[in-house]
Amino acid sequence: SGHAAASLTLALPPTRRRPPAARAGALLLAGATGWARMYVGAHLPLDIVGGYAVGCLSGEAARLLGDAAFGRPPNLTP
Predict the structure, then answer these.
(1) CA 8 to chain centre
(2) Average pLDDT of 54-70?
């Protein structure tokens, strides 16, 4: 699911340096996107899981590239 991938990609990098409540809220909204796509019958659960996997990889890649662009050392811890 492209919607699941995009929502998780947009939720991960900005919340890395935010308080846990902000991170939980962003991830909750990303989860709601996947649930809504299943609810309306647009995707099967495995489609959503695959979309989240792609979103997780691209979100982490965006975070690492952003750190490199701003001269910050890469933080590889979760």
Answers:
(1) 2
(2) 87
